[in-house]
Design brief:
Layout lengths: L4 E2 L3 E6 L4 E11 L2 E10 L9 E5 L11 E12 L13 H47 L4 H46 L6 E11 L3 E11 L2 E12 L2 E12 L5 E9 L24 H5 L1 E2 L27 E3 L4 E3 L6 E11 L1 E6 L8 E7 L9 E7 L2 E8 L7 E8 L3 E14 L4 E14 L9 E8 L8 E5 L10 E2 L4 E8 L4 E12 L3 E2 L2
Parallel strand pairs: 1-4, 2-11, 9-18, 12-28, 16-23
Antiparallel strand pairs: 2-3, 3-8, 4-7, 5-8, 6-7, 9-10, 10-15, 11-13, 11-14, 16-17, 17-20, 18-19, 21-22, 22-27, 23-26, 24-27, 25-26
Helix pairs in contact: 1-2
Length: about 525
Amino acid sequence: MSTSTIPLPVTAVTCLEDRSQVERTATVELAAGVQRLRLGPVTALTVDRTLRAEATGPAGFTGAGGGARVLDARVVRAWTPHAPLPPGPGDSELRRRVHELDERARHEDRSHDRLEARLALLAQLSADLLREIGEGAGAGEVERARWARELDRVDAERERYGEELRATRSRLRELEEERSLARIALDEAEEEPADLVAHLELTVEARAAGPVRLTVSHLVPCALWRPSYRAALADGGLHLESEAVVWQRTGEDWTGVRLTLSTARSALATQPPALAEDVLTLRERGAEERRTVAVELREEAVGALGPSETVPGVDDGGEVRVLRAPAPATVPSDGRAHRVPLSGFTVPASSEYACAPELSPLVTQVVRFRNAAGHALLAGPVELVRGSGFTGRGELPFTAAGADAELAFGSSDGYRVVRETEERQATTGLSQRSVTTRTVRLHISRFSGPEERDEQLVAVRERVPVSEVSAVEVRLRKEDCSPPPDAFDADGIVRWDLPLGPGARRTVTLVYEVSATARVAGL
């Protein structure tokens, strides 16, 4: 058995959604026969059941590589607690300061204990003296001078040691606060060496002596990644940079590794969900229920693909995506976010100003572009940059390769929108249908500087209710809308494309009516 430890560095990492697959390689000289190798050190967070090792011949070598195999592979961990030694010459001033504060705190603790013991003895002495005075006075012995002298001496001692105890407690509180701040600074500035150290022990059989390349792979927790983007808008084009933000606290640094990013979810449960009974019952409708139709107004969001807001993770469109870093990456084991560049492209982009006054009175610049990255863009945060510099952060939805996407680059201060609503109710004809007419007026103004002379297009959107029952009808009165809307879709969204020049003002009027029969209740 070889007693020397062979280094086994990390050469490739595949970051998953909540863990990572680590690959290590090393070339070793083997003797013919069965031998045990000790390699490492490796992170103590290695998942033992995922450990996999194989032996292959290096490139250009045809000797022992074809006749070597790994018989056994295991992780061996050793606990090596630190000895309580004072800081040495190579330690930092911050560590020396923490050691000095610890020594002062221990000294003050001993002083505190001694003072409390003395005060306890003085309290006992005072109790004994008072008992002696009581017993002497009962026996007719009167020693007023001695009793007064002894009581004064005990009281003076108790007062003196009490003041020292209060001063000691005050110093202890100050020392504890200073020690806490110094330890926080030490934890952030320096990292203690791991007490738990792990190595790999491989049992390898080689038919002939020669070099063999060992490849070991395993899973580690405390490592994950998320996509991030940076979008810069200038001269009618958009430059989008894709990055991977990687966090890892596995206990060892990844230096110059081949980094692969995957959206595979290996942590998903493989068991089917538990089924519960769902009992359905039928009953006859009552007379009142037959005469009326109960309806209600509710907000309904348009459904979209991808995970919900309550489920954390990466939105990959339901298919596992694999991205590779174009250059070797280095990610220290400090638990902080490290950005790894992935790709970038520049494409022509169209820009428009959009407004939904029912939701917000702001006019937002929306940029549309085509995904030319050659791969899908996963959902993630995006830093927005315009010609004036950084403007804020947004969110890029999942975008397939070659598909269109849009980004909101913040609101414009050059617009003001005022929304007014009016409602009238009436009953028509013998059918006694109730008709509610709603009128929405939008006043849009553009405030521009003297250097602005171009005309800008503003897309204004309003919504009209959509009925799901035949007893309630919703009709858009296009003849009363001014100007007529440019688009009206099945979801009830009405759109106007308004060209506004510098200092221009426009008024948009939307009119629609909601009619219901007399049987409808709750509207």
